[in-house]
Amino acid sequence: MRLSRNRDFAIIPNMILEAIAFGPFNTSERKALTGLSRLIFGWDRWEKRIKRKELAGLIGLSESHTSEQITSLTKKGLIYIKLNRIGFERESTVWEKFLPEGSIFKVPSTGKSSSPQGEVEFPQEGRKSSLQKESTKEKKESFKESFKKRVFSKKLSEEKKEEIEKGLAMLKEAIKRNPDRKRKN
After folding, report:
1. What distance in Å separates the CA atoms of residue 46 and residue 26, rounded to the nearest whole number?
2. Domain 14-96 has CATH 1.10.760.10
3. Helix (H, G, I), strand (E, B), or coil: what is residue 145?
4. pTM here?
């Protein structure tokens, strides 16, 4: 997933932002997650090489306390450290554990959620609804249609090109017959 980048703000995925804001974290963990999200998502990435001193300065904690918070968040599975790079876990099931009850991103165990529009059923096989999923047959049909459009548009453009060439040939012939004839304005 590619995140959009702007100098004035960082785009943070909604599920991660809600978990940071309302999840069961202590103040230091919340500061660490907020600082990491600014440093990582602010540069349009999911992982980045960050110095502990830089993060500690941003969130206002000592380097040793910052290291403790990073270790704690790593054990919880929210972030990972790989080859001196710190990154956010992309798997939504990890973040769902830290969302508050009633969150719009949390799929209840019953498979149903209440909303202002009434009860909404979640499909058991995944997060996409049946409206968002295309069947294989529909995909094949849409592929066939787009292929036909491309083929027919090529045929139409070829026919148009032939018409234009024919018209130009007729103009050239007419000019050859009457070279002295002047245009009327």
Report:
1. 23
2. no
3. helix
4. 0.53
pLDDT digits (tens, 9 = 90+) for 40-71: 888 888 888 888 888 888 888 888 888 898 89
Domain ranges of the chain: 14-96, 131-185
∠ CA 87-91-96, rounded to 5°: 110
* First-last CA distance in the chain: 61
- Cα Rg of the chain (Å, integer): 30
What digits encode the pLDDT tens for the residues 115-131?
444 444 444 444 444 44
Give the DSSP per-residue string, 51-98. -HHHHHHHHT--HHHHHHHHHHHHHHTSEEEETTEEEE---HHHHHTT
107 and 127 Cβ atoms separated by less than 8 Å: yes
Residue (of 59, 53, 14, 69) closest to 34 by Cα position: 59
